Amino acid sequence: MVEDLKALVDEKEHIMYEGKPNKKCFIFEAIFNPLLPFAIIWLIFDGMFIGIASFSGDISKLAFFLIPFFLLHLMPVWLYLGGIIFTVKRYKNTYYIVTDRAVYISGGVISKHIQNKPFAELSHVDLHRGFFDQKFGVGDIVLTSSQRTTDDITASLSINSISEYQEVYKMVKKLQTDIYTDVMYPNDKRPSENHGYNTEYKG
Predict the structure, then answer these.
(1) pLDDT score at 178
(2) Best CA proximity match to 203, nearest among 173, 176, 174, 183
């Protein structure tokens, strides 16, 4: 997956950062996700129901009905457990590359996907640190696109759970500001070397 991602980087681009999320934080966030309380409550409820059913009659006679029913009824629990199981695969496929022109992110579990967003299309760069980010000394860099989807929703992508979050945030913020401002306020009618709007970016 890393090779596939690097293959998309143009030969004129320079890689400024590349790496993966912090593995411990990645796994802990997968375990303690918003579905966890719902899955626990669902499991307790079904467990109590199974217990009551087992005392109310011959469980062997009820098994033909109960087993298929609860296999289906416990679907939220299976979805939660499946998400944790596939976390290792998702972590393996996740990789980040930041060049002097764009951000490249790979991910996915069964089907792999790659996101690529030039700095010229980014309008905001934000830093986010959740509970586990702070615990493991990492952070998330959230990139918001200036372009909207067909549903008029602002598109965004994230570089999650990296230990170099401060350095990468400052670097991405500077590149985004220089290039985005240079596109919005071009001087010299974009010659081979554009002085831009007080930026240091050379086109």
Answers:
(1) 84
(2) 183
77 vs 28: CA distance, rounded Å: 17
Distance CA 190, CA 196 (A): 8
Condensed to tens digits (0 to 9), the pLDDT of residues 33-57 reads 766 677 677 667 766 666 665 666 5
Query: Contact 18/96 with Cβ under 8 angstroms?
Result: yes
Locate 82 and state its tokens.
């499946």
Query: Are 143 and 117 spatial neighbours (Cβ–Cβ below 8 Å)?
Result: yes
Judge whether 28 and 104 are in contact, CB under 8 Å: no
Of 37, 31, 42, give the one whose Cα is nearest residue 74.
42
CB 20 within 8 A of CB 94: yes
The answer to whether the Cα torsion of 56, 60, 65, 70 is positive or negative is positive
Ranges of the chain whose pLDDT falls below 50:
152
Torsion of CA 168, 174, 175, 178, to 10 degrees: 180
Q: pLDDT tens-digit profile of 63-91?
A: 665 666 666 667 767 677 777 778 888 89
Provide the whole-model pTM: 0.72
